[in-house]
Write a structure and sequence with these properties.
With 711 residues, the protein is α+β, with helices and mostly antiparallel strands. It contains 14 helices and 33 strands. This is Serine/threonine protein kinase.
Length: 711
């Protein structure tokens, strides 16, 4: 690596004359935060500092490069801005007053964070610390660098709130990690969506233990460190009784923010006038037991809260059950018309950790790629926008730019995993090797290459699915870009065309910011050989840049496919059944058993499911089908209605859900029944698990978000 030409935003080499990195869009000439170390500073003889990742009142976090291990890391520097400043040598820290003792004590507390993280080195879902040291009259510690997005950013990308089951999937692993933190008599004291990170691999990670303190300290007052809306009332007092219940409140507030889109009122204001609204009062549909658990976690008085994170978890998962007997079988054939004697839903259940991370993973990967465009344009999350009608009959025909056929300066790009080749405009470089995201030399235009199956909330089996959901895709794509300043977005052209020998559906759209600047986009969905999904190319350029528009159109027109695209998903289709869906196949884990012409049994090591499908003209409606199932279930020994009926939207289908438990011989099975209608058919999906949290399995998410009739 040539360190003279290094980009401090991604630690890749860049052309020496380029002010903007063609890989990540970082511009080193932009003003760096006040008090930050110069980029390229060498720390501890091995760590090179890069861009600033975050600044707080007590420290600065940098992206750094470990020259020994040749990996990116994050380094946090102790820099209390109220006590110290940067020395004139630009590196060492100098005190601004007489607070020598306060500064030293603060440094020890700072290093306490590193020591805490060192104790939690092998705890899943907590960021790991690799090293800590003193230098420049201050202290540093080295952490793993995590690529992805914060929960706060993820919520914003989803329109300000997310479904409760998705929120639980993100937060439950962190809650479980906190049980281990509390076992060490530590309290985090700063839990919020800012400090929970979703990695590009779909994992949840808890960050920032700078406020963490021992729960057993009695002789000293705890420092007042809090985040309004997330901190319980005891955190507003230096001698407040803090412990695991303090983190329970903050986690409850985080979950409340996820599902409602609103921040709870400050706890200190709720002491005398509690204005907290139940999620159901805000129009949020979720099971009663989930709402009750959130509200109990948010109790103002600590004695009314869950006393521990384990108890909070049990509010969602139920008490630990005895091992489930794999030979138990309660046939549902008489309820839904199945074959007599066939094994029911409750056979062969085995434990496996919750796997509902696929949608988040897809979004994180997309957001990382889209960050290239975000850096140069400033247009981000869609807030208040206007979308014009985009029917093909409305006159919004594709507008092929002049000169697209004359673009010759394309460099060949081959992607073996996707089995594709195409031309990339001259001067565009890949932002990161293997990413499929390219940027022009001036950073004003981008081109991204990928595969689409269902990440924008609708599945694709044919290009007609894209045509039907064009507006939804545009809203989703613009929404990923995380701005609060878009005043208008609209589709300007759309339609079918041939790209080589392949059929394609193209959408042209534009987004305008409050300052009047407009970016234009061209996206192409191209058929493939996978039986589902399609290739997805998307380019962006400044409005009026005819040369960039012609280059991107020509690049897309040069696209060629030599075989099926690589993907982690598979399509389920059986000619005996009238429906299909897309699922993530872990080799050997998913089993399918068609029972008759409208019924399928599925199982993995976590859940069992049955899918039933009937034409709408043979079923009164989905609610009537659910009511019939409930009526029959009420006759089963040990049956209880676990939750009230609730609603959820997934894959373009509005699902209505009932929750039950069935207890037999002291063993409990949790059951959810989903009913939804699509294209003239009604689906009934029954899912069963031995533990309640296992109901939120990735296989169920795949089915509910992609199932549709075979046309």
């Amino acid at each position: 690596m040539n360190l003279k030409h290094i980009c401090y935003g991604c630690f890749q080499e860049k052309p020496d004359e380029a002010s903007v990195c063609p890989r990540c869009g970082f511009c080193a000439e932009e003003e760096k935060p006040f008090l930050a170390l110069p980029m390229g500073t060498l720390l501890n003889g091995r760590y090179m500092t890069g861009k600033v990742l975050g600044v707080g009142g007590f420290g600065i976090t940098y992206l750094c490069y470990d020259l020994t291990l040749e990996i990116k890391v994050a380094i946090k520097e102790y820099m209390p801005s109220s006590l110290a400043t940067r020395h004139s040598d630009k590196y060492s820290v100098a005190l601004t007053g007489r607070g020598q003792e306060e500064y030293r004590n603060g440094m020890e507390r700072f290093l306490d964070e590193a020591r805490i993280l060192a104790k939690l080195q092998n705890t899943p879902n907590i960021v790991s610390v690799q090293n800590y040291f003193k230098e420049n009259n201050t202290a540093y510690f080295v952490m793993e660098y995590i690529e992805g997005m914060s929960l706060k950013a993820y919520i914003a990308s989803q329109g300000g709130k997310i479904p409760y089951d998705q929120a639980l999937t993100i937060l439950m692993p962190v809650m479980q990690a906190l049980t281990q933190v509390h076992a060490l008599n530590l309290t985090h004291r700063d839990i919020s969506p800012d400090n929970i990170f979703i990695t590009a691999g779909g994992e949840s990670k808890l960050l920032d233990f700078g406020a963490a303190r021992s729960s057993t300290v009695e002789e000293k007052s705890l420092s007042i460190i809090l985040k309004h809306g997330y901190a319980p009332e005891e955190q507003y007092y230096s001698k407040g009784n803090q412990g695991p219940w303090t983190d329970v409140y903050a986690m409850g507030a985080t979950l409340y923010r996820c599902v409602t889109g609103e921040l709870p009122p400050d706890s200190i204001m709720r002491v005398h006038n509690d204005t907290l609204k139940r999620p159901s009062e805000l129009g949020i549909s979720l099971p009663a037991y989930v709402e009750q658990s959130i509200l109990r976690a948010l109790a103002v008085n600590a004695k009314d809260r869950f006393p521990s994170m384990e108890d909070f978890l049990e509010g969602f998962t139920g008490k630990n059950q005895a091992d489930f007997c794999s030979t138990t079988a309660l046939a549902l054939g008489h309820i839904v018309g199945g074959s007599g004697g066939m094994p029911g839903l409750w056979t062969g259940l085995r434990r496996r950790s919750v796997g509902l991370r696929l949608a988040i993973l897809v979004l994180c990967i997309a957001a990382v790629g889209l960050g290239v465009w975000r850096t140069t344009s400033g247009i981000r999350t869609l807030t208040s926008v206007r979308t014009e009608s985009s029917s093909d009959k409305s006159g919004l025909a594709l507008q092929e730019p002049d000169g697209a056929g004359n673009v010759l300066s394309l460099q060949e790009y081959t992607q073996g995993y996707l089995n594709i080749t195409m031309g990339i405009p001259e001067g565009y470089t890949e932002t990161e090797s293997g990413s499929g995201a390219f940027m022009s030399a001036d950073g004003a235009s981008t081109l991204q290459v990928g595969f689409y199956d269902k990440s924008a909330g609708f599945p694709v089996y044919t290009l007609s699915d894209v045509e039907k959901n064009a507006e939804k895709y545009v809203r989703y794509y613009i929404g990923l870009l995380e701005s609060t300043d878009i005043t208008e977005q609209k589709i300007t052209g759309r339609g079918y065309r041939k790209i080589g020998t392949l059929n394609a559906y193209l959408i042209q759209f534009a987004a305008t910011e409050g300052n009047g600047s407009t970016m234009e986009f061209l996206t192409a969905f191209i058929e493939c050989q996978n039986e589902f999904g399609c290739y997805n190319l998307i380019g962006s350029y400044r409005q009026g840049d005819e040369e960039a528009e012609a280059e991107i159109f020509a690049a897309m027109d040069s696209f060629r496919s030599s075989g099926p695209a690589g993907t982690i998903y598979r399509r389920f289709y059986d000619e005996r059944l009238p429906f299909q869906f897309i699922y993530w196949e872990d080799e050997g884990e998913v089993k399918f058993n068609p029972i008759n012409e409208n019924r399928l049994a599925i199982s993995n090591s976590n859940i069992s499911m049955e899918i039933h499908c009937q034409p709408l003209n043979e079923i009164q409606d989905k609610e009537a089908w659910l009511n019939a199932v409930k009526e029959e279930m009420e006759g089963v020994s040990g049956f209880e209605l676990r939750t009230g009926r609730w609603q959820s939207e997934s894959g373009g289908i509005d699902w209505t859900i009932d929750g039950y438990t069935i207890t037999e011989d002291g063993q409990t099975v949790y059951v959810d029944a989903y009913a939804g209608a699509s294209d003239g058919f009604v689906f009934l999906i029954l899912v069963a698990a031995e533990k309640e949290n296992n109901l939120f399995d990735g296989l169920l998410l795949d089915v509910t978000s992609t199932i549709c009739p075979v046309k």
